[in-house]
Amino acid sequence: MARKAEELVRAAEALHLHGPAHQQPGPKGGEVIVPGGMFRYQIIVRSERLYVVQITCLGF
Length: 60
Fold this sequence. Notes:
Blueprint: H1 2-15, E1 30-34, E2 37-44, E3 49-57
């Protein structure tokens, strides 16, 4: 799961090099399915943050 989050952060950095100067609407975020569950994320470009807003574990 950490590897997928790192990929998302790298993609956000490549798309939005200087977050505070970003003028367009931010991306909506999305969901990523991983073995045993999923997580939902939101990218806030202006504050240069990627938030994981929900983690769901299907295997107990």
